[in-house]
Specification:
The complex is a heterodimer of chains A (315) and B (530).
Chain A (H helix, E strand, L loop, with lengths): L1 H28 L4 H6 L5 H10 L6 H13 L13 H36 L4 H15 L2 H15 L15 H35 L2 H8 L4 H39 L4 H10 L3 H29 L1 H6 L1
Helix pairs in contact in A: 1-12, 5-6, 5-8, 5-10, 6-8, 7-8, 7-10, 8-10, 9-10, 10-11, 10-12, 11-12
Chain B lengths: L16 H12 E3 L5 H10 L7 E6 L14 H11 L4 E3 L5 E3 L2 E6 L5 E6 L13 H9 L17 E8 L2 E6 L6 H4 L24 E7 L3 E6 L13 E6 L3 H9 L5 E2 L4 H8 L5 E5 L4 E6 L9 H9 L3 H7 L5 E3 L23 H10 L5 E8 L6 H13 L3 E8 L4 H5 L7 E6 L5 H8 L14 H12 L3 H18 L2 E2 L2 E3 L1 E5 L3 E2 L8 H4 L2 H4 L1 E2 L2
Parallel strand pairs in B: 2-11, 2-12, 16-17
Antiparallel strand pairs in B: 1-13, 3-4, 5-6, 6-8, 7-8, 9-10, 10-11, 12-21, 13-21, 14-18, 14-19, 15-20, 22-23
Helix pairs in contact in B: 8-10, 14-15
Classes of the chains: A mainly alpha (315), B alpha+beta (530).
InterPro entries (chain B): Peptide/Ni-bd (IPR030678), SBP_5 (IPR039424), SBP_5_dom (IPR000914), TAT_signal (IPR006311), TAT_signal_bac_arc (IPR019546)
Keywords (chain B): Signal, Transport
GO molecular function (chain B): peptide transmembrane transporter activity
């Protein structure tokens, strides 16, 4: 168990390192240059060179990569190319906004999806089950941006019920933020739930046909009790894995949702910085997303072990 | 100018007072919801301004935005400049200038020395009183080798600035410039207190005091209680929300979350006009699209082939299909009809494939194949516009291969690259004929995208710049337009209107030829109803 954990951790560190290298050198390959874009009318070769030098870009790429890694180990994310400000504090507020949004979406989506999947399994092959299956099929095929626009068109433009722009500020209380968060959360819930619903249903159905389920039924236990006490715990392992993986997808999917609702989170910051070719900010954001993804994947693996006695005792 | 949206400078284009009166009915104020709203709004427009309310605008911006006048960029930078700050002069709708922080000015004979008299008793937001040192500091920030300012080239002709007394300055130039005061209307030339550098908390003399600034997210202002300018700055609070997604911008206006939106896509105008309460304002100005034919290398060194390209373009089709009528036909030269120096004697060049073929044959060719570089970095749908060009040009024996270049790196690598025979560009127009011609058409111009060089043109440009006699200047600018029109390497398809949209409560709206949202001065000019 410990050996496995260590192996997994080591692989995770390697993955993060690999991601950082890809992010850094992909940034190097981007056409264009922040300095000439920023200087605009003043983009004479000398001015561009001076600005590049002032941001340390005259060093060779490998040196800069190693310096960047060194900074990261000390918790220093570097400075933004365009405005020269520290990236750390800039990302801090954005990250907390993103986590708020993602956390709320997960808080709604997970119980909703697992509950709906369970109900669909219990009422297998009824009209309810078919409806759930069909709707989840539709939402899985709907890109986030499309659903976001639909939600805006209906709830904001037609009904004037909810705001279409979700610009939250630090001086707002949580209660002030709630109406602004409803549409982005709704979009995220709808687009991430489908997988979880379908997998919950499928896992439950696969254990429903097992002999102990039949025995429990013959004992005369009510169906809800069978599902909650006997079936769900046994189906939990794949469900937990897919839930965590979907949370990872959710965080990555935030980029689009944040951009559409102008929500001041990490995703919007990243889109913003890409358009200004502020490569250092893009790299920092990208790395945080990559770490989140890798950590959640590890958690999914660990959960699979913890919830499955066979895997737990194997090592 | 151009290079994306970086150095957009209000104070361009043109619309004379007469032009404004006659065209405003047709394209000035088009109101949503058909006729029913028209009388109400028309009545409201004539009402006297009322104070109060909160004006919210959706603005294009980014995390890299700053209040620093030298480094500001994007729509956010320009709009914020005219909200927080004042300038020495204010550009008017008829393309003349009126005093702002400078009360009066005068050129000494020869136009290399200029004296500006500053307004007395003007207070900055921090209580300091405006004097010559503040103005000198604000101008000097754009000068010198180390300057990274967007107005560096604009100020490059200044050799010396000194205070004659506490409210009078003398500016000395390296060569005569009759248009110097116009240079001080641009957004970069905002006046801040001497030695002031805390751009997260900017201090100006403008109608509103900035109260919060989150780059790339939003900014807020409250009315400056001591504002010196009479009849301006009517609302209590101003809020800019940074909105970049095109659909989200329109939805925010439709759902009433914002009151003002600039840079409206012509394709969305018909939709907006159909929405009750939404007011769409078109401003005809100097914004034009351009196709630059490389006069230094490749086929277009032959003037006949340039002529063939000019006749092979169906301008009307682009105006109808892409701009949906929100603009005017281009005539292969940079001045719009409303510019004081516009030359009306140059006939509109028609779409004529036979003429194109005629010039092709004159160059000894039966057909011409050429690559046209387009990119979304220039204007929306530029690849589709290129296709319309290609379709029409085909009948004249010209095969245009439209290449869609990625927006990233277009300005740096494709445009102004001498190995590309034909590129697409966009120009916002400038307050004066001299500015746009010096920037794009002079043989040594920094953005001579067509690599065109004409000795007679260069000579006229210098003479006209220093000429204080308006009649003589006019003759020179007329000749320069003819030279560009006949010999130049630019094909100009259309002038595109600046299109803005406002919510139902906004009053005091009028078109402005210089830029979006009333030449970026909407915050101090509009008021809110009820």
């Amino acid at each position: 168990m410990t050996k496995y954990l260590l192996k997994r951790l080591f692989a995770g560190v390697l993955l993060v390192l690999g991601a950082s290298a890809i992010l850094f050198f992909a940034g190097e390959l981007l056409p264009g240059d922040f300095a000439s874009r920023m200087l605009g009318s003043q983009a004479t070769p000398e001015a561009v060179e001076a600005l590049r030098q002032s941001r340390g870009l005259d060093q060779p790429a490998l040196t800069r990569y190693l310096m960047w890694l060194g900074g990261l180990l000390q918790g220093d994310l570097g400075v933004s190319l365009t405005n020269g400000r520290e990236i750390g504090p800039l990302i801090a507020t954005r990250l907390s906004n993103t986590l708020t949004l993602a956390g709320l979406a997960a808080l709604v989506a997970v119980p909703f999806a697992v509950g709906l999947g369970t109900l669909a399994a219990m009422y297998r092959n009824t009209w309810f089950d078919r409806l759930v299956l069909m709707l989840s099929m539709v939402t899985v095929a709907t890109p986030e941006f499309f659903f976001a626009y639909l939600a805006i068109a209906f709830f904001a433009v037609q009904l004037h019920l909810l705001p279409s722009i979700s610009i939250v500020t630090s001086d707002m209380s949580f209660a002030d933020k709630v109406p602004l968060l409803i549409l982005p959360v709704l979009t995220l819930v709808v687009t991430t739930s489908a997988h979880m619903i379908r997998l919950t249903r499928a896992s439950l159905i696969s254990v429903m046909d097992s002999e102990y389920a039949g025995t429990a039924m013959l004992k005369g236990l009510p169906q809800w009790k069978i599902v909650l006490r006997h079936l769900l715990p046994n189906a939990m392992s794949p469900i937990a894995a897919v839930v965590v993986l979907n949370l990872a997808d959710l965080i990555v999917g935030l980029i689009i949702v944040e951009a559409i609702f102008a929500y001041p989170g990490m995703g919007q910051l990243m889109v913003d910085s890409v358009s200004k070719q502020d490569v250092t900010v893009v790299q920092a954001c990208g790395l945080i997303f990559a770490v989140t993804y890798i950590v959640l994947n590890m958690i999914a693996d660990l959960l699979a072990i913890l919830l499955n006695p066979r895997l737990r005792y194997k090592s | 100018m151009n290079k994306g949206k970086i150095t957009v400078m209000p104070g361009s284009g043109a619309m004379s007072r007469r032009g404004f009166m006659s065209t405003s009915a047709a394209l000035g104020l088009a109101l949503g919801a058909g006729g029913s709203l028209l009388p109400r709004t028309a009545r409201a427009q004539s009402q006297t301004p009322v104070k109060g309310g909160k004006l919210r605008a959706g603005i294009l911006g980014a995390t890299s935005n700053t209040n620093d006048p030298a480094l500001r960029q994007d729509e956010f930078g320009v709009m914020a400049a005219y909200t927080t700050f004042n300038h020495l002069v204010e550009l008017k709708a008829d393309k003349t200038i009126e005093p702002e922080l400078a009360e009066s000015w005068e050129a000494k004979p020869g136009a290399t020395e200029w004296v500006f008299n500053l307004r007395k008793g003007v207070e900055f937001h921090n209580g300091k009183t405006l004097d010559a040192n503040d103005v000198i500091y604000s101008i000097n920030r754009h000068r010198g080798e180390a300057s990274q300012s967007g107005a560096k080239s604009l100020m490059a002709g200044i050799t010396d600035i000194k205070a004659l007394d506490s409210h009078q300055i003398l500016i000395t130039l390296d060569s005569p410039n009759a248009d110097l005061p116009f240079n001080f209307s641009g957004d970069h030339l905002a006046i801040s207190p001497a030695e002031y550098e805390d751009w997260m908390k900017p201090v100006g003399t403008g109608g509103y005091v900035q109260t919060s600034f989150e780059p790339g997210v939003r900014a807020t202002w409250t009315r400056n209680p001591n504002y010196w300018k009479e009849g301006r700055a009517h609302v209590d609070e101003v809020e800019f929300l940074v909105l970049n997604d095109p659909q989200a911008r329109l939805a925010a206006l439709q759902s009433g979350q914002i009151d003002a939106l600039g840079l409206v896509d012509p394709g969305a105008v018909d939709l907006l006009r159909g929405i009750p309460g939404v007011q769409v304002v078109n401003s005809a100005g100097g914004q034009f699209w351009s196709y630059a034919l490389n006069c230094k290398k490749g086929p277009f060194t032959d003037p006949n082939l340039r002529m063939a390209m000019k006749y092979g373009l169906d301008r009307q089709k682009i105006l109808d299909l892409v701009l949906r009528g929100n603009g005017a036909l281009g005539n292969d030269q940079p001045l719009p009809k409303t510019d004081p120096f516009f030359n009306p004697e140059i006939a509109q060049r028609p779409y004529d494939p036979d003429q194109a073929l005629h010039y092709l044959r004159k160059a000894g060719m039966e057909s011409l194949s050429i690559k046209l570089d387009t990119s979304d970095a220039t204007f929306a749908n530029s690849a589709n516009v290129g296709q319309i060009y290609a379709q029409g040009a085909k009948k004249g024996g010209i095969n245009l291969e439209v290449v869609r270049q990625p927006a990233d790196g277009y300005w740096d690598q494709v445009w102004l690259n001498v190995d590309h025979p034909m590129t697409t560009g966009v120009w916002m127009g400038r307050p004066t004929a001299d500015m746009i011609m010096s920037m794009v058409y002079a043989s040594k111009a920094p953005w001579n995208e067509a690599f065109w060089g004409n000795a007679r043109f260069d000579e006229l440009l210098i003479s006209a710049r220093g000429e204080l006699d308006q009649a003589k200047r006019k003759a020179m600018y007329w000749e320069m337009q003819s030279l560009i029109h006949e010999d130049g390497g630019h094909v100009v398809p259309v002038f595109a209107d600046f299109i803005d949209a406002y919510g139902p409560r906004v009053r005091g709206l009028e078109p402005s030829p210089s830029w979006y949202l009333m030449g970026a001065r909407f915050t101090e000019r509009v008021w809110l109803d009820g």
